[in-house]
Amino acid sequence: MKLSDEAEQELAQVESVLKPLPNVKLEARLDTTLRFQVSFSAKKTLILRCHLPEGYPASRLVAEIRSKTLSQKLTDGLAQLAEAEAEKATGGPQVARTVAFVHNWLRDNPLCSAAEEIAEIKSRLLDKQEGDRLKLLQAESRVQLTAAKAGYRLSLQLTLPNDYPESRAEVELLSSNLPSSVSRQAVARSAEIARRCVEPPSYRGKDKKLRQQAAAWKPSPCLLPVAEFAFSFLRSCATQRCPVCDKPALATAAAATATASSVEDPADQLEFVACGHLYHAGCLKAYMTSPPYSPDGKPCRHAGCGQPVCHERFRTSAKVLESRWAAQQAKERELAEVADFFN
């Protein structure tokens, strides 16, 4: 199909017109089709094909967008928006306008690199009846997650870098009415999940299979894993009971009005053990320092768990604990005998 002189003149100038856009590259022209690459990062990269129909520019061009990294739903929707933009320029130059529109859309919507994760969070994780919320701040490339359960609330903010998911997202606490120790734990564990998604595991052992796995490691998106953790963490904290005293791990829902900066009774602070279960600090201390003792560690008392309780505050060996307990019992007997003597 032969293009009009007006169309040929437009195409001859399109590369120079798009020169101010460094993220756009004209890759090829085949008859009436032009192929452009628009790239802001390894993830935010797409191919835009502009097909010029018979009668162009009196007829609107057809936009086709494909990407190996962005979802088809997103690229199909963007193609429709691009064609709507081209429609506005029917009768005049459309190619440069369409390419610039796609370029600006990618630039102004940095969270498109996490579109699939955001869609899954909305469809699978949010419980709006409880008060869960997801807020997107496109201009700042930030995602705000709010988990709620039984009157408790935890709000985290993730800032996604331009080259997400190759680089690490920053996690910070926005607000919470959980005890401060619990909020700190939530932020620290969320940040650790984000770190593991972008930093390769260091393995220098001799196991061939593990070495191959470490060598084949690639960065992965962290928004969905962090969201899964945040929602499950809050719901678990709000519903778990201390297995020693059988009281709620957190205070009743009426106490949810307390702020994260409120003063806590040290014995009522929550302690997280390696298996992920919660204990009151005082209850855990009483359980770990009282007999019976086992060389393999005391089992978690949460129903169905039974894993050894691992906690940095309780690393003393069973033999030492047993000798301490025996000494304490002997001291108490001596004091009792003295009391009986004076009575």
TrEMBL record:
Classification of source organism: Eukaryota, Metazoa, Spiralia, Lophotrochozoa, Platyhelminthes
Stored InterPro entries: RWD_dom, UBQ-conjugating_enzyme/RWD, Znf_RING/FYVE/PHD
Domain of life (superkingdom): Eukaryota
Residue ranges annotated for the RWD domain, each copy included: 9-109
Protein name per its UniProtKB record: RWD domain-containing protein
